[in-house]
Amino acid sequence: MQLLLPCVHCAGRRASKITSTITSCFTGNYVRLWPEFLPGTPLRCTPVFDGRAVCYPSLRVLRDYLAWRQADTHINNQVGAGICEAGAWRHTPVNSTTSFNNMCNRTPAKA
């Protein structure tokens, strides 16, 4: 994620130009730095990344979105790792990570 403050006026603040530039730079650096992070593992195909530009109306809205994404990513990682059943989060009170973690530790993952 790349954040641009309202005072930044690169590319005339055109969303498509900013998105394509950032995505292109990320892709180039991903390929260039691959051997440094995964030595001995060849890159088997050309990576493709997408990007999007979103204008958040305030820092509070942005903060709330990032908090939600962090919680959502944490849940998805636990489900993906087999720690928790996919539907467990539906039965957890909002903003109750501890309750969610406790429920996941008691809930056997489906094979």
Short description:
By secondary structure, the protein is mainly α. It has three helices and no strands.
Detailed description of the structure:
The chain is built from 3 helices and no strands. Helix content is 50%, strand content 0%. It is flat and about 40 Å long. It is an all-alpha fold and 111 residues long. The longest helix has 23 residues.
Quaternary organisation: single chain
Uncertain residue ranges: none
Q: Structural class, from helix and strand content?
A: mainly alpha
Shape: flat
Q: In this structure, how is the largest beta sheet organized?
A: none
The count of DSSP E runs of length 2 or more, i.e. the number of strands, is 0
Radius of gyration: 19 Å
What's the rounded overall pLDDT mean? Answer: 79
Cα end-to-end separation? 34 Å
Helix content: 40-55%
Our estimate of the beta-strand percent is under 5%
What keyword list fits this structure?
mainly alpha; 50% helix; 3 helices; 111 residues; single chain; 0% strand
